[in-house]
């Protein structure tokens, strides 16, 4: 394996280039001193060639140059005006092929990537085809690319993902399909991509994700589905993603979270559900996510949080519930979140805070509560006093400074400044009184 696993194809190509940077510098120097178009004898006119690396980037080429020697390893044809991509079959040693933005789109209407385009490129590890407005990809076009690790197809106009399209890409590590026009992700579309770790399907006009769409992706670590039009997610869709670390579902139209939805995601670290239309969090909805550390649920319509909704989130450190319609907090709500460090409850409709609500949050360092119509009363005073007492070393309310909304005479008064003299409560000295209430 010559590609570093955690790098993008472009970065990989850059790594190859870095090895020959000195040569490159020399070459550039020669360029500036002479009018020779290149040093390598076989280097096509206009291109820049360094050993097995052929740079034909942004050269106004309207066709693939003739006589490219078969031994080259990197070919960059990006930003040209090429229409025919079917004459590379002799480059059997090619490892990186860059054909990003290689067609002049104002100049042609070829929208199909045809069968045979990449025949014989069995050593190809990186294929960059992004930004070409391809509409259709013929089934079988990637069939012989048995070494392929990086396949970039973002910023095209792909509207159909045939279930056989990626068949045989058993080494694939990263696949980008973001910024396309895919309406439906079919069952089995990514079947057998057993090495895939990153799949980007964001901003692709996806409205439906079928059960089985992500079957067999047992190595997948990052799945991006944000910025689509997803309303419903079939139960079980994420079931077999046992390596998944990060799941992006923000900026969709999801309104219901099935309690089994995230069932198999035992490794999940980060879950993003911001900017959806979720109104309710059900009991056990996040059960089994015992590794989850960051949960984004902000900018939804959450009104009802069932008791036990956050059960078992024993690793959770950051919980975003801001910009929702939460009216009510109860004593059981955050129970068990013993690692929780940051809790965002600002921009909701919370009026009352039962003292003890956050008692179990022994690791809490920041609590956002501003922009809630808080009613300042004996309970809130008790809550604030408990806060001060439980976290003497830190100011958990920090400087977001929540203030009273009711009663009118206390409007805008900072929560941090209320004292027992503001109310007529005689039991507040005893912080434990709520326990016997
Ligand atoms: C693939 O390579 C073989 C042998 O090198 C050659 O005969 C064949 O024409 C190539 N295929 C294409 C589509 O060029
Ligand atoms: C694309 O082709 C058109 C028509 O031939 C030409 O005017 C234009 O300059 C080309 N654009 C680029 C970016 O090469
Ligand atoms: C564009 O498409 C039209 C009709 O589909 C076809 O007649 C024409 O030859 C195409 N032009 C190019 C440059 O492929
Ligand atoms: C795959 O390779 C085989 C043999 O090397 C060849 O016959 C076939 O046409 C290739 N298929 C594609 C889709 O390139
Ligand atoms: C997945 O692989 C299995 C066995 O390797 C094969 O039978 C099946 O057809 C493949 N499925 C797809 C959709 O490629
Ligand atoms: C996206 O695909 C749909 C069909 O699925 C089509 O109606 C629409 O025109 C496409 N949008 C663009 C920008 O091509
Ligand atoms: C998943 O993999 C198994 C075994 O490799 C295979 O039999 C099955 O067809 C695959 N599932 C799908 C949906 O391709
Ligand atoms: C996925 O695509 C989005 C654009 O839709 C981009 O901002 C993001 O960086 C991509 N992420 C990865 C890991 O490719
Ligand atoms: C998204 O898909 C719908 C059909 O499902 C289509 O009408 C619409 O034009 C597409 N939007 C874009 C931006 O392509
Ligand atoms: C999960 O994997 C099991 C066994 O590997 C398989 O039978 C099942 O169909 C898969 N389910 C999904 C939703 O991919
Ligand atoms: C959000 O969901 C509600 C029902 O819960 C529905 O009435 C409303 O139309 C949805 N909003 C959007 C933008 O789809
Ligand atoms: C929490 O996990 C335990 C076992 O780890 C399980 O028995 C229990 O059902 C889970 N709780 C919820 C609410 O799912």
From TrEMBL:
<dbReference type="GO" id="GO:0007399">
    <property type="term" value="P:nervous system development"/>
</dbReference>
<keyword id="KW-0325">Glycoprotein</keyword>
<feature type="domain" description="LRRNT">
    <location>
        <begin position="42"/>
        <end position="74"/>
    </location>
</feature>
<dbReference type="Pfam" id="PF13855">
    <property type="entry name" value="LRR_8"/>
</dbReference>
<keyword id="KW-0732">Signal</keyword>
<keyword id="KW-0217">Developmental protein</keyword>
<dbReference type="InterPro" id="IPR000372">
    <property type="entry name" value="LRRNT"/>
</dbReference>
<keyword id="KW-0433">Leucine-rich repeat</keyword>
<dbReference type="InterPro" id="IPR000483">
    <property type="entry name" value="Cys-rich_flank_reg_C"/>
</dbReference>
<feature type="signal peptide">
    <location>
        <begin position="1"/>
        <end position="41"/>
    </location>
</feature>
<dbReference type="InterPro" id="IPR032675">
    <property type="entry name" value="LRR_dom_sf"/>
</dbReference>
<dbReference type="InterPro" id="IPR001611">
    <property type="entry name" value="Leu-rich_rpt"/>
</dbReference>
<feature type="domain" description="LRRCT">
    <location>
        <begin position="372"/>
        <end position="426"/>
    </location>
</feature>
<dbReference type="InterPro" id="IPR003591">
    <property type="entry name" value="Leu-rich_rpt_typical-subtyp"/>
</dbReference>
<keyword id="KW-0964">Secreted</keyword>
<keyword id="KW-1015">Disulfide bond</keyword>
<dbReference type="InterPro" id="IPR050541">
    <property type="entry name" value="LRR_TM_domain-containing"/>
</dbReference>
<dbReference type="GO" id="GO:0005576">
    <property type="term" value="C:extracellular region"/>
</dbReference>
<keyword id="KW-0677">Repeat</keyword>
<protein>
    <submittedName>
        <fullName>Uncharacterized protein</fullName>
    </submittedName>
</protein>
<dbReference type="GO" id="GO:0005886">
    <property type="term" value="C:plasma membrane"/>
</dbReference>
């Amino acid at each position: 394996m010559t590609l570093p696993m955690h790098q993008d194809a472009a970065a990989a190509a850059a790594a190859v280039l870095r090895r020959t940077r000195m040569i490159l510098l020399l070459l550039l120097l020669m360029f500036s001193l002479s009018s020779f178009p290149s040093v390598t004898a076989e280097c096509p006119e206009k291109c820049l060639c360094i050993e097995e690396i052929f740079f034909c980037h942004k050269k106004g080429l309207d066709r693939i140059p003739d006589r490219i020697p078969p031994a080259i390893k990197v070919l960059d044809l990006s930003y040209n005006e090429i229409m025919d991509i079917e004459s590379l079959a002799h480059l059997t040693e090619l490892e990186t092929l860059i054909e990003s933005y290689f067609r002049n789109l104002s100049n042609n209407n070829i929208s199909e990537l045809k069968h045979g385009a990449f025949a014989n490129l069995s050593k190809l590890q990186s294929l960059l085809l992004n930004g070409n407005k391809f509409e259709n990809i013929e089934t079988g076009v990637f069939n012989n690319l048995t070494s392929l690790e990086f396949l970039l197809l973002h910023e095209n106009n792909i509207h159909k993902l045939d279930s056989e399209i990626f068949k045989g890409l058993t080494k694939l590590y990263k696949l980008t399909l973001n910024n396309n026009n895919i309406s439906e992700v079919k069952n089995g579309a990514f079947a057998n991509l057993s090495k895939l770790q990153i799949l980007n399907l964001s901003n692709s006009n996806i409205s439906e994700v079928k059960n089985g769409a992500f079957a067999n992706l047992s190595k997948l670590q990052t799945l991006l589905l944000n910025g689509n039009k997803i309303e419903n997610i079939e139960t079980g869709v994420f079931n077999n993603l046992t390596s998944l670390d990060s799941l992006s579902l923000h900026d969709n139209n999801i309104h219901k979270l099935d309690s089994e939805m995230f069932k198999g995601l035992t490794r999940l670290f980060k879950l993003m559900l911001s900017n959806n239309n979720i109104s309710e969090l059900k009991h056990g909805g996040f059960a089994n996510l015992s590794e989850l550390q960051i949960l984004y649920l902000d900018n939804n319509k959450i009104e009802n949080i069932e008791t036990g909704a956050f059960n078992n989130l024993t690793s959770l450190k950051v919980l975003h519930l801001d910009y929702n319609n939460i009216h009510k907090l109860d004593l059981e709500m955050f129970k068990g979140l013993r690692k929780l460090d940051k809790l965002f409850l600002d921009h909701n409709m919370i009026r009352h805070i039962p003292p003890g609500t956050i008692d179990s949050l022994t690791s809490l360092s920041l609590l956002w509560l501003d922009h809630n119509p808080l009613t300042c009363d004996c309970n809130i005073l008790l809550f604030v006093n408990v806060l001060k007492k439980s976290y003497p070393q830190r100011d958990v309310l920090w400087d977001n400074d929540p203030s009273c909304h009711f009663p009118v005479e206390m409007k805008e008064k900072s929560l941090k400044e209320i004292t027992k003299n503001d109310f007529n409560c005689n039991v507040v000295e005893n912080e434990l009184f709520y326990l016997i209430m």
